[in-house]
Amino acid sequence: MKKLCVVWFAALVPWGFSSVALAADSSPGLASNYSRATESPAELLVRAAASGDLGQVRKLVEGGTGLSVPEPRHRMTALHAAAANGQLRVLQWLVERKAEVNAQDESGYTPLLNACDAQHLAVARLLLLHGADPDVQPVFGPTPLVSAASQGDLQMLDLLLGSGAKVSLPDAHGVSPLQAAKRAGRLNVVQRLEELERRP
């Protein structure tokens, strides 16, 4: 089911494909198709985080693998992978040990943006509580607020706004949250954002 979810999301938001695709590779069903003999410790950590294997995450970190060391293919960290896959227990363990919450992958995605893209509200809330930037602007793709607006995710939208996200901040393509909501036909979000933009 998780694989289908990832594929659907990559089609909906193509700019997020690289981050979510690697997370999909890390799910238990797909991970067995890969040989771990040639993987770096960072790659193993990312796979364990994505699949929710807290025991393996702890073993790797306690064995010397850096919490925020990115894997070489897409520059994702374990926190990126945990956030993309909604692995709250792993994410909690990582942030409590000061994993870098604003680490960016090759496209400028942060763990918070992965959580927003995948609509993992509890994950996004935890990241924000630990200092995640609600206004991150990746080189390619949406801001967290643009992601929430385009998906019609009012809960995520309210969470981000309550955490200080700028209501009119555009993404890398110059698209504002309101424009993204209009293009996607998210009328409930359009109404909310128009009300907010009218406020002095």
Biggest sheet details: none
Number of domains: 2
Percent helix, as a range, is 55-70%
Residue stretches low in confidence (pLDDT < 50, at least 5 long) are 1-35
Oligomeric assembly:
single chain
CATH architecture of the largest domain: Alpha Horseshoe
In CATH, the homologous superfamily of the largest domain goes by the name Ankyrin repeat-containing domain
H/E topology pattern = HHHHHHHHHHHHH
What is the CATH level 1 assignment of the largest domain? Mainly Alpha
Described by the principal axes of the CA atoms, the overall outline is elongated
CATH topology of the largest domain: Serine Threonine Protein Phosphatase 5, Tetratricopeptide repeat
- Please report which band the strand proportion falls in: under 5%, 5-15%, 15-25%, 25-35%, 35-45% or over 45%: under 5%
Separation of the first and last Cα atoms? 45 Å
- Helix vs. strand class: mainly alpha
**Alpha-carbon Rg, integer:** 17 Å
Number of strands: 0
Mean pLDDT: 85
Number of helices: 13
Summarize this, please?
The protein is mainly α and 200 residues long. Helices cover 56% and strands 0% of the residues. It contains 13 helices and no strands.
Characteristic terms for this protein:
mainly alpha; about 200 residues; single chain; about 55% helix; Serine Threonine Protein Phosphatase 5, Tetratricopeptide repeat; 2 domains; disordered N terminus
Layout of strands and helices, then pairs:
Layout: H1 2-12, H2 17-25, H3 28-31, H4 41-51, H5 54-62, H6 78-84, H7 88-96, H8 111-117, H9 121-129, H10 144-151, H11 154-162, H12 177-183, H13 187-198
